[in-house]
Amino acid sequence: MSESAVPFVASTLAVPPPSSGIGWLDEARRENLAAFGEAGLPDTRVEAWKYTALRALSQRSFIHGDAQAATRDIDPEAFALPGLDGPRLVFVNGVFRGDLSDLSALPAGLALRPLSQALAQDAEPLRFALARRYKERGDAFAQLNAAQAVDGVVLRVAADAKIDVPVRLVFVGVAADAELAWHLRNVIELGEGAELTLVEQHVGSGNARQLGTLVADVVLRDGARLQHIVAQDASADATLVHRHALQLGARAQALLHVLELGGALVRHDLQADLVGNGARLDTRGVFVPRGRQHIDTQLAIRHQALNTTSDSTWRGVADGRARGVFRGAILVAPGADGSDARLNNKNLLLSGSAEIDTKPELEIYADEVQAAHGATVGQLDERALFYLRSRGIPLAEARTLLTAAFCRAVLDDLPNATLREHLASLLAIRLPV
Amino acid sequence: MTSERSDHMLGDTGATVLRDNAEVAEALGRSYSAGFVTEIESTGLPPGLSEETVRQISAIKREPEWMTEWRLKAFRHWLTMPQPDWAKLKMAPQDYQAISYYSAPKVAPKSLDEVDPALLETYEKLGVPLHERAALAGVAVDAVFDSVSVGTTFRKQLADAGVLFCSMSEAIREYPELVQKYLGSVVPPGDNFFAALNSAVFSDGSFVFIPKGVRCPMELSTYFRINAQNTGQFERTLIVAEEGAHVSYLEGCTAPRRDENQLHAAVVELVALEKAQIKYSTVQNWYPGDENGVGGVYNLVTKRGDCRGADSKISWTQVETGSAITWKYPSVILRGDRSVGEFHSVALTHHFQQADTGTKMIHIGRDTKSKIVSKGISAGRSNNSYRGLVKVEKGAEGARNYTQCDSLLIGKRCGAHTFPYMEVKNPSAIVEHEATTSKISDDQLFYCRSRGIGEEDAVSMIVDGFCKQVFRELPMEFAVEAKKLLEVSLEGAVG
């Protein structure tokens, strides 16, 4: 079957990509869409999609963009984070909602606005990020996003500015009449020595059978420090494909916490390039698919400079008929001496119909390195269960306690206590009982 | 037969190379000692591959009709398959029409006593005991020269015990019902590109059958040698251990040094029935190419064992130091309840060698266990990848796997990679994987040096320690060989 006969591809190609009136941008959109049309959706023979089949998705047709997003009724409680005040950008079905956002008191050194506004004022600084052509096999959603995204977030922190309030980016999916697809593009940059805490929330309300794609470029200049939290709790019917591409300059440090809780089919590509000497990246994540959920995390860390460090701890819990997929690839490029790379991924398989597929990878081209990874798939420790039960804790409760403790390990080093507790309770709600 | 490169012959030093450490350093001259060419008259098929070639091979070997058909079916399937490209290997495209698919010494020996002395000498040089020395070593050997088996030792003693050990061609003629029952039952002819090619054109190999309850009285061994130019070697080995049978099997390989890449695409099938145990050890030392990456054998091998019966065990041990390219994943299908699979591997690459090797453990039966220990050593400008799959199927209640993969880097221009896949569908299974990559630490080196150990010896000592876990699994004779082979292969890697 030719790609253009696949309903998903056909419905995408049926309408021309949105026009911005900016020559280079429209050209990039056209070319990315053409590339998407040519290659179509990847099948499981493409290594990056080996464990995530898109057959069902490919049979669906989507309308790109929600015309009524501006007027949809949203309850701000859905994304409230009590105790955390700060600037906030809210998108509903991929459309910026000024009424729900809070840009009133931006701290000095922080520039934050929707991509649509930034493009209208001065598109040139965004050219490098937005003119990109995605060509890798399996880049279908990035191509689609590049062709269709008309909004998103542009965030810049000036050099040496230390932003002491967390900035929140909220993405809300709500049910629409048709099957809806929305696309957002985020461009984030921390200047030299800048500091920022960024909280990214995905929430859903109603049975939003929609597709969301989000592509974010995050650049940390020399000495910048970023704490980045991604709390994904999308609607149970949603398909979400998000990608974060980080680039860390010399001595830059990023600490990422990722919670993958919601969504029917979720794919997260997390790519980091450590391009400056002494850069450090720590990632912590947990994915908790249950029911028929399918959550696929693809972590790729590339050490490309001297004395770079990465440390990753990921946990997975799969229950019901769910499937958890994890790939943790570490590359140490030639000459990246002094690299220290560590990764571990532990998984709990709680049901006979669930599946965990994990694939830690090391690709090492330098010899002055320390690299180690470990992965396990197993179940709760019988002895620990017995211990709890011998102290009068019922089996079900003991299981929940141990599962929660297993997952909470990834939140331990989150510095902001309010945030930590909030994420822990979010996790607790979603954990299988 | 050409001899233009026979000037590289190391002559009489060859046989002792693997035996005596003191002579190693001297004799080596840092090169491949098995790289000589034997001057022997041979006959063969001209290069080229077609249904006609397949029929000819089958005819030369006087095979029954069903075998010819089996080959043709495999060949037709092969024509429809693309060459796989997923491995982390840079491989020059192969011209399958430029290879000769059959080469044999002109005079076929009837017994070991009639084997051409030049041939015997070849094996003598390589340190393979075919004759009286075999008695001392206590190992039964099947020697395969290019496409044919030139002799199998200890046949009588083995026959007394009920063990069948002969060349594959002989087995097809003598024991067709056994061959028909088991050939292709573990690696089907259409399994993969190279297995299909092998199924179509395989020329010889070893056949081992250990009947019910028999413990094979000695180690069995096959020695493979590619000699002729522009030939590919496609051997096929089948080992069947019936209920309660035990066997330990060793395999060794060498080839002359030649500037063009020779193809070696073998298939090995192991079948272990209830309570049977098979231990398969390989020391692979095909010609690795020279220090500029010219020449060398392309070693593209499918090896798979099937633990068909309950409580059976299959264990693979490999030491891979040769070949320009190694593409090889000895696997175990753990079908029988409580069956056990093991994989112990040392893979060393130097200069421009590339290895993409590892294993697959497929847990199907209840309470099945597997253990994987892989040690990769990269030096020069080589690339060494571990690629492995541990799969636990839904019914594999209580399955257990432990995998350990360590890589050692020697030098700045080599690569060491690990690609483990874990697919788990049973909640009572426990699967663990650990991997590390590092170089020989300066502390370790300094410690050795401060005690008066030269740098090269110190490296060799540390590497030996790194590999100990695997060497321990090898039969003693082989362990000594493997250790020395490693020292030889690392020559010039330091400094």
Topology (elements, then pairings):
The complex is a heterodimer of chains A (433) and B (495).
Chain A: H1 7-13, H2 23-39, H3 55-58, E1 63-64, E2 88-92, E3 95-96, E4 110-114, H4 115-121, H5 127-130, H6 140-148, E5 151-157, E6 167-174, E7 180-190, E8 195-205, E9 210-220, E10 225-233, E11 239-248, E12 253-260, E13 265-274, E14 280-287, E15 294-303, E16 309-318, E17 323-332, E18 340-349, E19 355-364, E20 370-378, H7 382-390, H8 395-408, H9 417-430
Parallel strand pairs in A: 1-7, 2-6, 5-7, 6-8, 7-9, 8-10, 9-11, 10-12, 11-13, 12-14, 13-15, 14-16, 15-17, 16-18, 17-19, 18-20
Antiparallel strand pairs in A: 2-3, 4-5
Helix pairs in contact in A: 2-6, 7-8
Chain B: H1 14-17, H2 21-28, E1 42-44, H3 51-60, H4 65-79, E2 103-105, H5 117-125, H6 132-137, E3 139-145, E4 148-152, H7 155-161, E5 164-167, H8 168-174, H9 176-182, H10 193-201, E6 206-210, E7 219-225, E8 236-241, E9 246-254, E10 261-264, E11 267-272, E12 277-284, E13 296-307, E14 313-320, E15 325-328, E16 331-334, E17 340-349, E18 354-357, E19 360-363, E20 369-379, E21 383-392, E22 400-410, E23 415-424, E24 430-439, H11 442-450, H12 455-471, H13 476-490
Parallel strand pairs in B: 3-7, 6-8, 7-9, 8-11, 9-12, 10-13, 11-13, 12-14, 13-15, 13-16, 14-17, 15-18, 16-19, 17-20, 18-21, 19-21, 20-22, 21-23, 22-24
Antiparallel strand pairs in B: 1-2, 3-4, 5-6
Helix pairs in contact in B: 3-4, 4-10, 8-9, 11-12, 12-13
